[in-house]
Amino acid sequence: MQLDISLIGVPTDIGAGARGASMGPEALRVAGLAAVLESHGLRVTDRGNLNGPANPWLPPIEGYRHLAEVAAWNQALHTAMHAELRQGRLPIVLGGDHCLGIGSISAVARHCRETGKKLRVLWLDAHADFNTASLTPSGNIHGMPVAVLCGHGPEPLTGIGGQTPAITADVVRQIGIRSVDAGEKRLVHEAGLEVFDMRYIDEMGMRHTMEQALLGVDENTHLHVSFDVDFLDPEIAPGVGTTIPGGPTYREAQLCMEMIADTGRLASLDVMELNPALDVRNRTAELAVDLIESLFGKSTLMRKK
């Protein structure tokens, strides 16, 4: 496990349908993220917040809301993320809405091309985020990042990172999905995305789900986790803009994170869509920090190292 951690705050809700995710980075800091990681012997440097355009809160143009602004934020994140990876550090993106997965994962994919690593992306989310402008009436780009990364979308987004598509669908494993639009569902199937939805988790259990999602991860794998906080059941995590009932319980989420930690391959992390404006006494941020701690080795069992 890489001991040098960089926190990168990206305070924007530019791709979202509700305001407030721009306050997510500060909520995670208030919940003590840096101190919690340091308690595990990790060396944490908080790089502060990236800067980008304000949210103009306009209707979509040709199917995309705030395309230029979304591209600017994601380009800034791509550059920052890539710089951290080149220094051999483990970057944690403090989002921000999930459109930022475009900048983050395109940087990780670029780093993997440069270093000859295999990429595995675990997309923990209630939504498949595989929409396109023709499929979504809202035009909110936080519903599109996986599609964009796989080459479906406008060039200002698909071209970030210098290669289109940035990734192929076979590197992604989606976990916890329970809200997919009809047209989006068709596109997901066509792309061959591997999805472990909530029915799969209900039937097979989280342990089997994670065993399947982590299959083939080895010492040459860069494991990237993109954690949308709405992955969690809203009963335990109310502070998100798009709550979908029926998500993983606290224990299921803990097991998911612990099994990722067990691989020893986690190399970059996104924490997205935390919305303090909709939270209760920063409870969701504190839960997110608790789960991140499990990603970095906190175990509920007295396990011998």
Automatic annotation (TrEMBL):
EC number: 3.5.3.1
Entry GO CC: cytoplasm
Binding site for Mn(2+): H98, D125, H127, D129, D228, D230
InterPro entries in the record: Arginase (IPR014033), Ureohydrolase (IPR006035), Ureohydrolase_dom_sf (IPR023696), Ureohydrolase_Mn_BS (IPR020855)
Entry's Gene Ontology molecular function annotations: arginase activity; manganese ion binding
Pathway the protein contributes to: Nitrogen metabolism; urea cycle; L-ornithine and urea from L-arginine: step 1/1
Cofactor: Mn(2+)
Keywords noted in UniProt: Arginine metabolism, Hydrolase, Manganese, Metal-binding
Gene3D superfamilies hit by this protein: Ureohydrolase domain (3.40.800.10)
Co-factor note (free text): Binds 2 manganese ions per subunit.
Enzyme class per UniProt: hydrolase
GO annotation terms (biological process): arginine metabolic process; urea cycle
PROSITE patterns attached to this UniProt entry: ARGINASE_1, ARGINASE_2
Catalytic activity: L-arginine + H2O = urea + L-ornithine
Tagged with keyword Manganese: yes
Family classification: Belongs to the arginase family.
Protein name in the entry: Arginase
Gene symbol of the encoding locus: rocF
